[in-house]
Amino acid sequence: MNARQRIIKRAIKEIKNGMNVNLGIGMPTLLANEIPPNINVLLQSENGLLGIGPYPKEDEVDSDLINAGKETVTVVPGGSFFDSAESFAMIRGGHIDLAILGGMEVSETGDLANWMIPGKMVKGMGGAMDLVAGAKRVVVIMEHVSKHGESKVKKSCTLPLTGKGVVHRLITDLAVFDFTDEGMKLVELADGVTIEEVTKKTEASFNIESSVLLN
Amino acid sequence: MKGKVWDTFEDAVSDIQDGATLIVGGFGLCGIPEKSIEALKNKGTKNLTIVSNNCGVDDWGLGLLLANKQIKKIIASYVGENKIFEQQFLNGKIEVELTPQGTLAERIRAGGAGIPAFYTPTGVGTPIAEGKETRYIDGKEYLLEKAIVGDFALVKAWKADKLGNLVFRKTSRNFNPIAATAGKITIAEVEEIVEIGELDPDEIHTPSIYVQRVVLGKNYEKRIERLTVVSKED
């Protein structure tokens, strides 16, 4: 399994039966295909759909039916369409149980940066700032270390923020961290990963949950 | 009374002047008013302020106006699909106000609903909070965001009746209904125009009061940005 597959395999466990879930663009979108059949959830797409279905068959493709990543999708039975103001009333109003988003950097205080690299790249925040401000639970998934070998888990973010102190849980290819009143806490290690490796590849300081130390 | 149905897009956009503020419906290329945009491109109106979630792609949608240098300023939430935009922005050739998508939607909604500004939790502690009023309400910090009203709104609906009642289809609804409320003059382009009374009042998404002009578009391209299908074996 590569890093992304490891992240996805772990992140899927965050999705519980009965939830209304928003999956961000990119790696989080891939989670949709991995949800076990016994878990019934409604996936929300901020462009105006509650109840995203699988990708369409070729003869079902409808240019009026896309997800927030602009991909053609279908709608599940019981799904609904609505306008963008309504969509963000759902998001900001705390009606989304779980948002899973990608990240560029996460800080030890639960800040998230994922929308811009000054001078180099600007995509825009899309709905991410609203999602982190309004969803009941915010989980960020990202690779632990950048392509250049730098830790993406920072003392404080160097990139422009998407939200301040908004992340509840961070899942990387190496570990799972929770952001608590007592600070950032390592709560799980990926298979074959040691505390020493995580410490070496993490710029942020963190506590270690006792169950992790015992293993 | 002159009817609301206009025969040509050329006429419908003819009084959009240089420097106008336009609220444009659509998300990505889904539900964009593609015929009105083409008419504006042909008219060559300059120095436009565009309020829209995205700015099209390089060769379609609002990207056409961008490539033609007709846009002075854009208020949008996501522009990642458009290289011309990214270049014009990074080179300082276009003024950009990046706005969180939900804030953008609510600013437009508020504009149409007569609410001049509102407090939102979105963006607190981020660069978009710079220079904005903040206030603690019940112990939590919020940003004051201002409403947006357009000189014109350009929207795309599925069906209209001759009075201007609109029905949208699937996720092509997106920003269109709120855009329709926030334009001083709203131009709705549609795939079908029916007689007054043919739409069930219960199915109308946008009441006619918000719509000043209706134009029938033909041969919609409705481009797909990312065609994704399941393979036959699945």
UniProtKB/TrEMBL annotation, chain A:
Family, per entry? Belongs to the 3-oxoacid CoA-transferase subunit B family.
Gene Ontology terms for molecular function: CoA-transferase activity
Q: Where are the transmembrane segments?
A: none
NCBIfam families for this protein: pcaJ_scoB_fam (TIGR02428)
Q: What is this protein called?
A: Probable succinyl-CoA:3-ketoacid coenzyme A transferase subunit B
**Pfam families to which the protein is assigned, alphabetical:** CoA_trans (PF01144)
Record keywords: Transferase
Per the UniProt record, the source organism is Ureibacillus endophyticus
Q: How does it assemble?
A: Heterodimer of a subunit A and a subunit B.
TrEMBL record, chain B:
Question: Which Pfam families has this protein been placed in?
Answer: CoA_trans
InterPro entries on file: 3-oxoacid_CoA-transf_A, CoA_trans_fam_I, CoA_transf_BS, NagB/RpiA_transferase-like
Q: Which Gene3D superfamilies match?
A: Glutaconate Coenzyme A-transferase
Q: Which GO terms describe its molecular function?
A: CoA-transferase activity
- Keyword terms of this UniProt record: Transferase
Say which domain of life the source belongs to.
Answer: Bacteria
The family classification in the record reads: Belongs to the 3-oxoacid CoA-transferase subunit A family.
Q: Could you tell me what this protein is called?
A: CoA transferase subunit A
Which species? Ureibacillus endophyticus
